[in-house]
Design a protein that fits this description.
It is built from five helices and nine strands; from the N terminus they run αβαβαββββββααβ. With 190 residues, it is α/β, with parallel strands linked by helices. This is Uridine kinase.
Length: 190
Amino acid sequence: MVDTDTVLEFVEVARAEAGRRIVVGVSGYCGAGKSTLARSLAEHTDIVRLRGDDFLDPARSHRRSSDWDGVERVRLADEVLRPFHEGRGGAFRPYDWNLGCLGDPRPLPTAEVIVVDLIGLFHPETVNLLDVRIWMDLDLATAAERGKARDDALGRSHARLWDEVWVPNDRDFAERFRPRDQAHLIVDSR
């Protein structure tokens, strides 16, 4: 079970040591609990969550890829991570799942901590822009089982995507980029 207080303490120490605003990246396999942890952290003062789903291309994220190329890491880096680190204002365009395109610009948060939860986040395009990297540690089979159950409960029929795309993408990404090894904190999400 995830101990949110321990994670929060880790994040607060990292921010104090940095002496500035920080970005926390939460990654792991699909269904590993990334969003659950990020939502929990964002309940605390001065922590804002940016949904990883706002930085997905639905067409590309629904096809096979060894690097999760449906994750729009360059857009995330250019619109959020670099401006936030540089203390600049700005805006980002979340993907609007209802309209099927990028939505209206939203201002960058001004919080002390931004938390981004996203698959394929610990990638060369973004990994060095994350001040704290948290890996949700759960074996791939269990994560997929949980993700499928969640989707079924929400009335989403994604079994084929899980089996033919998302699980193989997660497996290939882990083998290629070793995201668990790049984490500052590994959280047991069983």
